[in-house]
């Protein structure tokens, strides 16, 4: 439902819908790349205790600079990073929007390469930044030559690169990131929301921060730390870039509750990362199984798998939903994305998919 005529919204926002996948109350939810494992009892107890402490202090504004949280995030990231090289906000969505507020804007250009995360054009729209998209190769890998040609011709102020990419799951090589950094006149943002799920041979762009002062690496606690409901995203960059971002952040943007709870969860990083290892195995099993069904699957470094291709992907999506399994109809035409859940949830997904693909109308459509 779009905004009625009489509502005096900005002309360039008219006709848009709010972003978001359907939030449906079904038994198996595998559509927004959440971590299926809630916190352990020990983590939940630590969270509850830290909330009890902060509860007595809520009349005060929180630490505007979130130093304790940034210190903990820097120490988690390693790579010699310190708190002044780390910034945090309410989800990496907010981090990214702040980046475009400070480094994009009227008269400036941001670019990315599709298929990729579908929020990127929205950050650009919201900040009046001109938006450009190049294309990935037909197999969804990052086409370095094509990317360099676009960057050289258009001189974008901000280049956004997701690695692992959403919805395809592939990571960038360090050589590709280096090449874009060398060619780009402005910021190069590598969105590593799913970094913890990457396969062992896959590098992180954090290793390039010392070489490229205009490189920014964003991360999130939503996925590996099972903290999607807590809303904490963060980035690592040169301290001067972090300082520049502080100009556009709202004062006290990260609540005391958010900061305290995130710190409590970070104290349990080891336990969270053990779950990530399990999820990686489940992902690889899921990919193997999908291939055994004769489907195409993109190798994934993330906590989701893109598979296809279907003549009528909506019918397949609906067939799964009718059996209580919600996945995501996103990305290139003909493909579907499933988030990695618990082994039980993946069994339900597999059973529902087999049943759906045996439905005569769908079988014919996909033949
Ligand atoms: N980047 C990518 C590539 C994503 O897929 C997502 C979430 N789906 C985000 C950023 C934003 O996550 P959050 O705001 O929860 O940190």
Outline the structure in words:
The chain is an alpha/beta fold and 367 residues long. The protein has two domains: 11-30 and 275-365, Aspartate Aminotransferase, domain 1, CATH 3.90.1150; 41-271, Type I PLP-dependent aspartate aminotransferase-like (Major domain) (Aspartate Aminotransferase, domain 2, 3-Layer(aba) Sandwich). 39% of the residues lie in helices and 14% in strands. The strands form three sheets. The protein has a seven-stranded mixed sheet, with helices on both faces. A three-stranded antiparallel sheet has the order 9-10-12, covered by helices on one side. Strands 1-11 form a two-stranded parallel ribbon. Strand 9 (296-297) and strand 10 (304-308) form a beta hairpin. The longest helix is centred in the last third of the chain and has 24 residues, at 269-292. The protein starts with 27 loop residues before the first strand and ends with a helix. The model has no long low-confidence stretch (mean pLDDT 96). The structure holds 4'-deoxy-4'-aminopyridoxal-5'-phosphate.
């Amino acid at each position: 439902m779009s905004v009625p005529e009489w509502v005096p919204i900005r002309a360039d926002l008219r006709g848009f819908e709010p972003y978001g996948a359907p939030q449906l109350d079904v038994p198996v939810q595998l559509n927004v790349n959440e971590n299926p494992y809630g916190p352990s009892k020990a983590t939940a107890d630590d969270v509850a205790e830290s909330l009890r402490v902060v509860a007595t202090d809520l009349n005060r504004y929180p630490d505007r600079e979130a130093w304790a949280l940034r210190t903990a995030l820097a120490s988690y990231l390693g790579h010699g990073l310190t708190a002044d090289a780390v910034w945090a906000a309410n989800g990496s969505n907010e981090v990214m929007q702040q980046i475009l507020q400070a480094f994009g804007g009227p008269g400036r250009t941001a670019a990315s390469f599709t298929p990729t995360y579908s929020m990127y054009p929205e950050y650009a729209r919201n900040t009046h930044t001109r938006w450009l998209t190049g294309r990935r190769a037909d197999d969804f890998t990052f086409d370095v030559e094509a990317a360099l040609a676009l960057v050289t011709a258009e001189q974008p102020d901000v280049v956004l690169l997701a690695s692992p990419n959403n919805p395809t799951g592939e990571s960038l090589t360090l050589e590709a990131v280096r090449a874009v950094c060398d060619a780009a006149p402005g910021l190069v943002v590598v969105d590593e929301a799913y970094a913890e799920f990457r396969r062992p041979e896959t590098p992180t762009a954090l290793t390039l921060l010392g070489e490229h002062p205009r490189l920014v690496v964003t991360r999130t606690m939503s996925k590996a730390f099972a903290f999607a409901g807590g809303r904490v995203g963060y980035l690592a960059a040169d301290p001067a870039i972090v300082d520049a971002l502080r100009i556009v952040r709202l004062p006290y943007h990260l609540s005391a509750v958010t900061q305290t709870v995130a710190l409590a969860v970070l104290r349990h990083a080891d336990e969270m990362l053990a779950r990530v290892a399990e999820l990686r195995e489940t992902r690889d099993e899921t990919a193997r199984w999908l291939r055994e069904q004769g489907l195409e699957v993109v190798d994934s470094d993330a906590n989701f798998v893109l598979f296809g291709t279907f003549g009528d992907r909506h019918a397949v999506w609906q067939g799964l939903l009718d059996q209580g399994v919600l996945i995501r109809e996103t990305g290139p035409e003909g493909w579907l994305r499933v988030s990695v859940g618990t082994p039980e949830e993946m069994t339900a997904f597999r059973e529902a998919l087999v049943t759906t693909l045996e439905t005569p109308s769908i079988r014919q459509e996909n033949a």
